[in-house]
Design brief:
Organism: Sphingobacterium paucimobilis HER1398
Distance between the termini: 17 Å
CATH topology: GIY-YIG endonuclease
Helix content: 40-55%
CATH superfamily: GIY-YIG endonuclease
Protein name: GIY-YIG domain-containing protein
Number of domains: 1
Strand content: 15-25%
Order of helices and strands: EEHEHHH
CATH class: Alpha Beta
CATH architecture: 3-Layer(aba) Sandwich
Strand order of the largest sheet: 2-1-3
Radius of gyration: 13 Å
């Protein structure tokens, strides 16, 4: 069964926070790293994934993504700080993502949808 993941990414200064969708978090993290290195313009350089939510259906993942994109910055910060207070990159732990508290909470959230 495919996993549908909603993530929140940020830049090194935590100035920008953006939500996105992926099915492969490790590949998405590598993609963000690659583009942050190549990006020489004034665009934000997202290089860390600080929050993840896992869903079993594409529809519920898209519904949650729409909710997150309409969140204010403060709401997104509260969500991140609740489960990842130091804003650590959760994909840097050698792919051991399924045991991360953010994903465990996300699985409980997915059950509500």
């Amino acid at each position: 069964m495919k996993k549908h993941l909603i993530y929140i990414a940020t830049d090194p200064n935590r100035a920008y926070v953006e939500a996105g969708y992926t099915q492969d978090l490790i590949a998405q993290s590598a993609n963000l790293q690659f583009h942050s290195i190549r990006n020489t313009g004034k665009l934000p350089k997202f290089n860390r994934i600080v929050h993840v939510e896992e869903f079993t259906s594409f529809e519920s993942a898209q519904k949650r993504l729409m909710e997150l994109t309409h969140f204010t910055r403060m709401q997104k910060e509260r969500l991140i700080r609740k489960h990842n207070p130091n804003w650590l990159n959760i994909t840097s732990s050698c792919g051991a993502i399924s045991n991360h508290p953010t994903v465990r909470v996300a699985q409980a959230l997915a059950a509500a949808y």
